[in-house]
Amino acid sequence: MKSKVSSGLFIFLTPVLLWLLLLIVIPHIELLLMSLQGESDLGEPIWTLSNYTAFFTESIYWYTFVRTAVYALLVTVLTFAVTFPVAFYITKVVPVRLSGFLTILLLVPFWVSELVRVYGWMILLRESGVINHFLLQLGLINQPVEMLYNDISMIMGLVYTSMLFMVVPLISSLEGMDDSMIEAAHDLGASKFVIFFKIVIPYAAPGITSGSIVVFMLALGNYLTPNLMGGKNSLWFTEQIYNEFIASFNWNQGAAFGFLLLLLSSCIIWIGLKLGRQQLGKALS
Amino acid sequence: MIRTFPQSRGYSLGFKIYICLFYLFLFAPLVVTCVLAFNDSSFPSLPWKGFSLDWFFADGPARVGIFHDSSNLTSIWVSTKTAFFVSLLSLAVGSMGAFLFEQEDFPGKQGLYFLALSPLVIPGVILGISILLAANAFGLLLEENLGIDVPILRPSFWLVVLGQFSFISTFVLLVVSARLKKFDHSLEEAALNLGATRFEVIRYVTIPFLRPALIGAGAVAFLMSFENFNTTLFLVGSDTTLPINLYLQVRDGSSPIINAISFLLIVSTSLLALINLLFSRRGEEA
């Protein structure tokens, strides 16, 4: 019996170890090593910190980095603000028979490729786009307005693409909440405001934490939406990485940028987990 | 505030308007994309010039519909092949991972579990570049020391498969684990007592129990792979997948043919989503 169990362990363990070692651990070690290498004046490969010093001395690099981080945080907060009322409405307000239908309706757009959704926004917002067409028809504007390729459209696009990952954990944490808690607070004379901050928010905290972590990470690592909706001025850090890798072919510099981005996202996720007093495994599943 | 409370008119009306606006926001880009796929115009924009199926069926020279556009058709085929292999691989390894973490005990399990979840918090772009770097380094190593050239290790079809597999396995692992947690172990013990081997138990008892989760995870894996952009961007070789091919077209201008492809994607993914939903419902009832 004992030997059977250990043979099972061996058979399950081998592919999992191969997967994690070859595709996760070794590539990230390689990323770190690559970022610490460079070329000497003679073109010889050497160990150097120059890729990191370049990041701190070239203002455009760290400016983009900080900008990306701040905007990703903003996107997380906005996504929460936009989706929380919806999650609350679906779980607590709307008649029960409708809530299932509304939930399914909510999920459908997110099965569609991010590229298609971004493209949809592009043909809505651009100068020759659908919104401009209607505004012109209604006589509200005389000249088409370019609504695409600015920070606002980029932020909106990022909020749109990440909403699902906030609304699903919110719905599942609010669903578990007993309505009588709100009723009790109401009967004891609590205002809506107090009920919201003292009862609903603390109860939904695990959902808020895991939703925020995923949304933040996706916004930070997004390339498509900033690139297509933010235009030339989007200055998103992933674009910096792409440029180093594909356009400049400076893999060492790109690796350093990649490692910094990984460090940033890990730090923020760690802080988020500490603040929400959660464990990674629970927050993600 | 909630169902049982009497509501003020303004409050509930305001809430309803907000929800309607939200759903409008949610569906506007998709509906507009679909509608403009049928506009008889050379640009994906209004005014409406009449209904046309040109962007699906036209065979040149002025307009080429999607069913005659070989570059897009090829990329759809590449994406389908990629998604097929990725879902097969990640189903196998992801479920083995689920068995490993749910049913086995070994030193360092917690740490390994943490590692297995980590792909969820690694940005896709980073995963793409690190796998590119590692594959490149490994390829150089082989070439310099053994003189073998391994084309797979350069950006190529199989590197894309490996890159997508590296994080999609985690999703499969989570879905299968969730189902495995509900499994009644006395069923396994009964089978073992009746003389079945460990793998017969898995084959005849556990796998049938897991089937809804496996189908669901397979569908999600297929779709995630089919639509993946971030990781694929750095690993793609000459076989461009559909998202990459579409991205290049959208970046360089637009044509209603993109709407036509989008329409097909929206319709087929919605169908897949509904089927998946029905399956998972039935799985939970069983």
Keywords:
heterodimer, A: 285 residues, mainly alpha, MetI-like fold, 13 helices, B: 286 residues, 11 helices, 73% helix
Q: How does this model look, in words?
A:
The complex is a heterodimer of chains A (285) and B (286). By secondary structure, chain A is mainly α. Chain A contains 13 helices and two strands. In chain A, a hairpin with a 5-residue loop joins strand 1 (37-39) and strand 2. In chain A, helix 3 runs antiparallel to helix 4 (96-107), helix 8 (179-187) runs antiparallel to helix 9 (192-220) and helix 11 (237-247) runs antiparallel to helix 12. Chain B is mainly alpha-helical and 286 residues long. In chain B, 73% of the residues lie in helices and 0% in strands. Chain B has eleven helices and no strands. The model of chain B has no long low-confidence stretch (mean pLDDT 84). The chains are: A mainly alpha (285), B mainly alpha (286).
Strand content of chain A: under 5%
- In terms of per-residue confidence, which ranges of chain B show pLDDT below 50 for 5 or more consecutive residues? none
CATH H-level name of chain A... which superfamily? MetI-like
From the N-terminal CA to the C-terminal CA of chain B, the straight-line distance is: 36 Å
Helix and strand element order of chain B:
HHHHHHHHHHH
